Amino acid sequence: MAHQIIRLLPQDFHKICRDIWDTVKHASFAEQFEKELYAGNRIAYIYQIDGENIAEISMVFDADDPDYTIAKQRAYISHLVVRQEYRRQGIGRELVHY
């Protein structure tokens, strides 16, 4: 099984993330996530195995809260999700270290 980690482009958000997490059930978060991608305040990476979307990690740069972010100094991991059937295989760890 060949894997790769790709950067999520804002225009691919719905097509890719719905494979990994329930963007309908979590609609308000999905809407915020997409807006932050387009605004450049969030960056996300997708873990794929043989072209299949398996996991996602994202980082937020400005949460307007110094406990989380400091402009140009500190960001935070906002979201890390691995599809259930692929958990406990080190995929999340690999994304964090990426």
What does this structure look like?
The chain has helices at 13-17, 27-39, 91-97; strands at residues 3-7, 42-49, 52-60, 76-82. By secondary structure, the protein is α+β, with helices and mostly antiparallel strands. The protein has a 4-stranded antiparallel sheet, sandwiched between helices. A hairpin with a 2-residue loop joins strand 2 and strand 3. It is globular and about 40 Å long.
Q: Which structural class do you get from the secondary structure elements? A: alpha+beta
User: What oligomeric state best describes the polypeptide chains here?
Assistant: single chain
- Approximately what portion of the residues adopt beta-strand conformation? 25-35%
State the shape.
Answer: globular
Q: What is the ordering of alpha helices and beta strands?
A: EHHEEEH
The total of beta strands comes to 4
Average pLDDT confidence is 89
Which key terms come to mind for this protein?
globular, alpha+beta, 4 strands, 98 residues, four-stranded antiparallel sheet, single chain
Structural topology:
Layout: E1 3-7, H1 13-17, H2 27-39, E2 42-49, E3 52-60, E4 76-82, H3 91-97
Antiparallel strand pairs: 1-2, 2-3, 3-4
TL;DR of this structure?
26% of the residues lie in helices and 30% in strands.
